[in-house]
Design a protein that fits this description.
This protein has one domain: Rhodopsin 7-helix transmembrane proteins (Rhopdopsin 7-helix transmembrane proteins), CATH 1.20.1070.10. The protein contains twelve helices and no strands. By secondary structure, the protein is mostly helical. α1 runs parallel beside α11. 70% of the residues lie in helices and 0% in strands. Pfam families: 7tm_1. Its main location: membrane. This is Hydroxycarboxylic acid receptor 2-like. It is found in: Membrane.
Length: 296
Amino acid sequence: MDNTSELPPNITPLGWHQPLWYQYDKCAVAPYAFVFYYTVKVFNLALGFPTNILVMWHITTRKSEGSTSDVFIFNLAALDGFFCLMTPVELLNRLYLNHWGVWYLQRFAYGMKDMAPLFLTCICLDRYIAVVHPIVFINSHDNRMRTGISAFVWALLLVYALTKSILGVLSVTEVFSGLIVSAFFIMVFCNLSIIWVLRRSVAGKEVMHPVKKKAFKMVVILLAIIVVNYLPPVALMPFASTYTFVQLNCQISVSVFSIMDLSSTIELILYISKMDRLNNYSCLKVPAKKPVDISA
């Protein structure tokens, strides 16, 4: 009888390589970050997917005039909804199948998620122009332009995702690093500028206007989400070469990118929490017959 007791735990007597739930053999000494990873995955599927569908449904069925950023929010919800829906496929493949074709699909899905900050950046820029440069915003409120920008972003997104899927993760590492760093600083700049303008508009006044107060709170919350979700990978990149293999691939990167994946749910929960109040944000509404009164 063959002695199978010395076989690695992920190899059967028939030679089938069962996937390790912690991805690498060396991660056996520190697999706990993957527990957090799988928890985030299940959380995104259970809460993130229905949340994204609800946001898409709300935007498409709303009768009242909404925010000009809704075009970008809808596309972001579609992208995040697809990423959340990939959870059962990914978990099945990671824990049991280990099929090469499904790995290609997983890399494609992660390529899509990598580019999600582009839509969030578009939202921040749209709000930045509305508040900081209202005259420019009034002259560029046509949503056809935003639809065109969204189509261009989707084209970039698909090229990136296909490249990552076919050529592998290393083929897009530098592009991803540049994207995350650029998007992070643009989003932080836009939101800090909005906060500064809103605070300056009430300088010397005892009470902030209710509309601006709601806008101010929304931007502060959005800025906090951006910092929590996207600051970790930005802070990690310059020091990646200083960590050991186990530290980088089994602990730090898994935890950091799990936090970034949480944005698939958290960003849209913020939108839902502001649904009823977003229409009162006069800076972001499309002007009808008269210009937006930024000081209202």
